[in-house]
Every structure is written in C-alpha cells, then in structure tokens.
Design brief:
Elements lengths: L2 H9 L3 H4 L3 H6 L16 H8 L3 H20 L7 H12 L6 H9 L11 H17 L6 H24 L4 H13 L5 H22 L3
Helix pairs in contact: 4-5, 5-6, 5-8, 6-8, 6-10, 7-11, 8-9, 9-10, 9-11
C-alpha cells in the first residue's frame, strides 16, 4: 500500500473529531504505528503534495471514506439480506453524521467558480451502494429488471440517508419501511421514475441542510 493510501486510511478515524478536513489529513501521521509515527502533523505543503491543493485534499478524503463504505458492503457475511446490508451502510455514517452535509455539498460544488452544482457525485454514491448491495445479497435481476431494481434501491438508500441527517434515531425504521414498500412494487420503468423523484428531492435536501448553499 502506498504512503498516500496508508495515510488516508489513518485519517478516516479522525474524521469524527476533525471532519473531512486538511487537519484530519495532517494528523494522520501522528497515528501511524510505531516507529513510523511522526511527532508533528503534516505541513500544508506536504498535504498539498500528497492529496491536492485546497479543497481537492478534502475531496480526496471524502472519496476515500466513501470507498470504505463500499468495502464494508463487499464484506457483508454470506446470506445477508438487503435490509441488513443497507442498515450496515447507514451505520457507517453515524460517527461522522454531523460532517456529512458539508461533505456532500463539497462534492457537488465545482472545483472553481460558482454553481451550478453537479449532482453526479450523489448519483454515483447512491447507485454504487445499490449495485454493491445487490451483489452482496445475490440479486440476480436481468436486463430491464436489473436496472429498475438498482434504481429503486438507490432511491431508497439516498432517501434514507437524507432522513438520517435530520432524524438519526428513526432512520433505520424509515429505511425498513421504504424497503417493505418497494418489495410490493413490480420492477418496471415506474420504479425508475420513482427513483428520479426520490433522488432529486434527497439531493436537494442534503445540500439545503448543509447550510453551504
């Protein structure tokens, strides 16, 4: 594993305290195993060289954290249900919940200049979760049903994640209710339309709740 990758892994547990920040990246060298641990945090110059200048370093940390969520899904025990897999992914949010609105808003913002915002990172996040969850649970949908199933699950997950930001204690029951409702629906293009509606509302809500825009 490269030095950059190792430092990102050590920075992830620091997000709870320091957020998705350059500070978390700087302090990653302090928690390296002995005798590699540094006595001082990384300098701004070192952070920029390893992870990118300005907010690019923060984006790098956010994406590393999201990749960790994918790995958690991939490591789901055999025989896991969809509810169990998506609940486990929501649990990963809990330690960093207060920092997520700003993180999602940063991913949606352009690298320079003013909005319009880019919804593709949110779309990619939700669809990646849905896709990996289907693989983890052995979903064998084909062709149109494959697309509709993943679109519906992506909508459900992104909606539950938004709900978690505003009401963490009820997020899991809300996720269960969405999954139960979805299981009674036929996998058709109607579910794709449902996905589009959920996705737009969820993404807009996440950005609004961040207070950044």
């Amino acid at each position: 594993m490269s030095t950059r990758s190792r430092l990102l892994q050590h920075a992830i547990p620091l997000i709870k305290t320091h957020g998705f920040t350059r500070e978390a990246l700087a302090r990653s060298v302090l928690v390296l195993p002995s005798p590699e641990a540094h006595p001082e945090p990384l300098s701004e110059t070192a952070i920029s060289a390893l992870f990118g200048h300005g907010d690019l370093a923060r984006r790098t940390l956010i994406r590393a954290w999201l990749d960790g969520g994918v790995q958690k899904i991939q490591a789901a025990p055999p025989g896991s249900t969809m509810k169990q897999v998506l609940r486990a992914r929501l649990e990963l949010n809990e330690p960093v919940l207060q920092h997520l609105p700003e993180a999602f808003a940063l991913l949606a913002s352009p690298n320079s200049g003013l909005p319009p915002l880019d919804p593709r990172p949110a779309f990619q996040h939700a669809t990646k979760v849905a896709d990996e969850a289907c693989y983890a649970t052995g979903d064998a949908s084909l062709q149109l049903a494959w697309f509709a199933r993943r679109a519906s699950l992506a909508a459900i997950y992104s909606t539950a994640e938004l709900h978690q930001l505003t009401s963490p204690k009820t997020a899991y029951a809300f996720l269960d209710s969405l999954l139960d409702s979805s299981s009674s629906l036929k996998s058709t293009l109607d579910e794709v339309n449902l996905f589009s509606s959920y996705f737009v509302k969820s993404w807009a809500g996440i950005l609004k709740s961040s207070g950044v825009f």
